[in-house]
Amino acid sequence: MINTQNTAPGIPCPTESCGHNIKVSLQDLLFQKIVKCPHCLVELTMNREASKETISAMAELHNALESAEAAKTFAGNPVRHP
């Protein structure tokens, strides 16, 4: 039975008897071929050919997040905002 009250982050495991969420990061979606449910071990894959546009948008977001994180420091010192 699926736990519809589950508020844990992630996507619901598609296995009906599991009911847990699978934590998936942006990096997982971009760089992993398989995402596995840690509870029931079902494996999820993405059709990368059909998802080209989405993957491209996620890569842009990933790059922007990395640039923003790098901009937080300047010469090794945290940037402080007034």
Can you walk through the features of this model?
The structure is a single chain. The chain has 82 residues and is of the alpha+beta class. It has one domain. It has two helices and six strands. Strands 1-2 form a two-stranded antiparallel ribbon. A two-stranded antiparallel ribbon has the order 3-4. Strands 5-6 form a two-stranded antiparallel sheet. A hairpin with an 8-residue loop joins β1 and β2. It is flat, with a radius of gyration of 17 Å.
What is this entry, summarized?
The protein has 82 residues and is an alpha+beta fold.
Characteristics:
about 80 residues, alpha+beta, about 30% helix
Query: What is the 3D shape?
Result: flat
Please give the count of helices: 2
The residue ranges in which pLDDT falls below 50 over 5 or more consecutive positions are none
Mind telling me the C-alpha Rg? 17 Å
The structure class reads alpha+beta
Instruction: Characterize the main sheet.
Output: 2 strands, antiparallel
Spatial separation of the terminal alpha carbons: 51 Å
The order of strands across the largest sheet is 1-2
Helix content: 25-40%
Q: Report the portion of residues in β strands.
A: 15-25%
Number of domains: 1
H/E element sequence: EEHEEHEE
Mean pLDDT: 84
How many distinct beta strands? 6
